[in-house]
Amino acid sequence: MDPLQISLTGLDVEWRRMEVIAANLANIQTTRTALGEPYRPLRLVSGPRLSFNDEMARTDALNGVQVYGIEPTTEAPRRVHEPGHPHADADGYVSYPAVDHTGEMVLLAQTARVYEANLVALNAGRQMYSKALEIGRR
Fold first, then answer.
1. Is 14 helix (H, G, I), strand (E, B) or coil?
2. Centroid of chain to Cα 119
3. What is the tens place of the pLDDT at every residue in 4-52?
4. Which one of 5, 23, 122, 138 is most buried, by most CB atoms within 10 A?
């Protein structure tokens, strides 16, 4: 696979990871979803892009990365005693999503760095192709 394509797959995966993190942060106070339960934080599941040859056997060629799916975390909701809240249970507790604000911000910063690294690799690849074309014209 073309090195530029590999960087593009990395950009796509990290962009989608940022979208998931943004959704988690946006729903940090969501006590009820359409299903009637607190928002469940999500995680993006990604890994190497699998390739197959003509016999449908897996090959180990470099093909970039891909998103396998988005899954909710298994953490239990955080319960806060707020008897006046409209979503409080009989004991006066409200269930909030188990979103760790600090953890999400750290993950966002890490994801942004990986995104930037893919941009740098993409630009370096472009420059190498450009220089190769210049050499070829001489």
1. helix
2. 17
3. 889 999 999 999 999 999 999 999 999 999 999 999 999 999 999 877 6
4. 122
